[in-house]
Amino acid sequence: MGAYEINEQLLTKEEKKELTINKNQQTISRKKEVFRKFISNPIAVLGTVTLLLIIVFSLIGESLTSFTASEQVKEATNLPPSSEHW
């Protein structure tokens, strides 16, 4: 007898019934199970959405403004902030 074999003589009819495989039960794939657990964790979802927003804004950010990241206006070095740059 192997390590995981069950001696059927020791089992009652109810116990044998519990050990049989339920073929009507649906199984869930590993991907679906992981996705469901991920969606049920609100902090993980919030972190993912925040990260995606940062990535999207970093990709389209330069097209939203008339200034580039490397542009300098040397004449306005000592001037306070103004609405011209918003």
Structural description of this entry:
InterPro entries: OppC_N. This is ABC transporter permease. Keywords: Membrane, Transmembrane, Transmembrane helix. The chain crosses the membrane at residues 38-60. Residues 32-81 form the Oligopeptide transport permease C-like N-terminal domain. The structure is a single chain. This protein is mainly alpha-helical. It has a domain at 26-60. 42% of the residues lie in helices and 0% in strands. It contains 3 helices and no strands. The relative contact order is 0.05. The model has no long low-confidence stretch (mean pLDDT 81).
Topology:
Blueprint: H1 13-19, H2 30-39, H3 42-60
GO cellular component, one term: plasma membrane
Protein name: ABC transporter permease
Organism: Bacillus cereus
